[in-house]
Amino acid sequence: MIAEVINTGSELLLGQVVNTHLAFLGGRLFGHGIRIERQISIPDGAAIRHALEESFARRPDVIFVTGGLGPTTDDITRDLLAEMLGAELVQDDGILQMITERFERRGFSMTPRIALQALVPTGVHPILNHWGTAPGLHLPASDAHPHTFFLPGPPRELRPMFTELIEPLLATLFSQASPPVCRIHRIVGMGESMVEEKIGAQLMALPGLELGYCARSGDVDVRVVGPAAVVEAANRIIEAGIGNRIYAHDEGSMEGAVVDLLRTRKLSLATAESCTGGFLAHRITNVPGASEIFGAGYVTYANEIKSATLGIDPALIAAHGAVSEPVAAAMAAGARRISGSDFALSTTGIAGPGGGSEEKPVGTVFIGLAGPDGVQVSRQFYPTDRETFKFLVSQTALNLLRESLLGA
C-alpha cells in the first residue's frame, strides 16, 4: 500500500530545522505494509491547500500531514482543512478540558489562541495528544479523498502519538496477511562496488527481491525487501559472501556491536583520545548498558596532559611527535594500565585544516589497541572535514576492537 507525506513548516525549507519525520514515519509504516511513495516539504500558508488537493487527486491509500496545528497565526492547517471540506469548526469540550488541565498543572495561564486548538472540523475525528496541546486529526476516507492523518509538528509529540494511537488504527484500517519484510546488513571496510561484486549477481537472481545499496561514511548498507522466504534466502547469500565485515543489522550500530561483544565476554574497555576529543567515548556511552564494560575515558589533547595523565615519556613525544605510532601505542597501554581495563583504544591524528606535513599530511591518524596480547597500532588516512574525520577514526577504532574480539 502507498502513502504520501506532507511536511509543513517554513523552518524546514529555510534550513533552520532538520526534517526527521520522514525517516521515522517510513520506518514505522513499513511494518504495516505501507510504503511512502512521495514526500514534500512546504512552507506555512496556502501551499498546504494545494499540496492536499494534489495528494487527494493522486489517491494514495493514506496521507500524513505534519505541522500547522498549533495556536500561533502561522498554524492554519486546521482552518484550511475545514475550508476544503466546507465544514464548520466546532469546539471539542473534551480536548479543551485536556488543554486547560495541562496548563493548570504547569501553573501557566491560557491565552485565547490556545483554546483554538480545541476546534475540530465536522466530520473529522480528533486524536488526543497526551504529550502536548494540539490534537491530531483523522479525516476518514471517502470518494473525494483517502484516509488522511494530521499530526503535530514537534517530534516529542508526533512520535508517541503515532506509535501509541495511530499505529493501532492503521492495523485495523490496513491489515495485511503477509506484509513484506525488510532487512539491512551494515558492512564496514568495503566499497559499494566490491560488495556488489561479491553478492549482487546471486541476489538479483532471487525472484521478488528488491535490492538496494547505500554508501555512508566508511560503511555500506545492503537493503533487501520482499516476501519473508525470499529475504531469508537473500540473508544467507549476504552473510556467506560478506562474513565478519557485517557488523550490525537494521538499526544496529558499530558501538552497539562492540558493547555487546564485550558484555558477552565480560570484558572492559577504556579510551585515550586526542584528535577525536572524546567522541569515541561518547559513542560507547550512548549504548544502553555501556556502564557494564566502560571503565574510563581520557581526553588528552595537549602533549603535557598525555604525559601527566597517561604517563607517556615526554622524550617519546619529542622524538616521534604526538601523531605517531609509538605515541598511539603508549596512549593505549597507559589507558589500559591506569584504568585496569582489559582493552584500551587510543586515537592521535591531524584533523586539519592545518597542522599537516609532507610526512604526515592532514588526515593522518594512528589508532592504538592495547589488550591482553599486547599493543597494535593502525595508521589510517582520512583527508576530510573535521566532523567526518572524527567519525571515521572512531568507526575504525571500534572495528579494530571488534575484529580483535572476533579473532579476525
Describe what is shown at a glance:
With 408 residues, this protein is of the alpha/beta class.
Write the layout of secondary structure elements.
Blueprint: E1 2-8, H1 10-13, H2 21-30, E2 35-42, H3 47-58, E3 62-66, H4 77-85, E4 89-91, H5 93-106, E5 119-121, E6 125-127, E7 136-139, E8 147-151, H6 155-173, E9 181-188, H7 192-204, E10 210-216, E11 219-226, H8 228-242, E12 246-249, H9 254-265, E13 269-273, H10 279-285, E14 294-299, H11 303-310, H12 314-320, H13 325-339, E15 343-349, E16 364-371, E17 374-381, H14 386-406
Parallel strand pairs: 1-2, 1-3, 3-8, 13-14, 13-15
Antiparallel strand pairs: 4-5, 6-7, 7-8, 9-11, 9-12, 10-11, 15-16, 16-17
Helix pairs in contact: 2-6, 7-8, 9-14
Written description of the protein model:
- The model has no long low-confidence stretch (mean pLDDT 94).
- Helix content is 41%, strand content 24%.
- α2 (21-30) packs parallel to α6 and α7 crosses α8 (228-242).
- The strands form 4 sheets. Strands 2-1-3-8-7-6 form a 6-stranded mixed β-sheet, sandwiched between helices. A 5-stranded mixed β-sheet has the order 14-13-15-16-17, sandwiched between helices.
- It has 408 residues and is of the alpha/beta class.
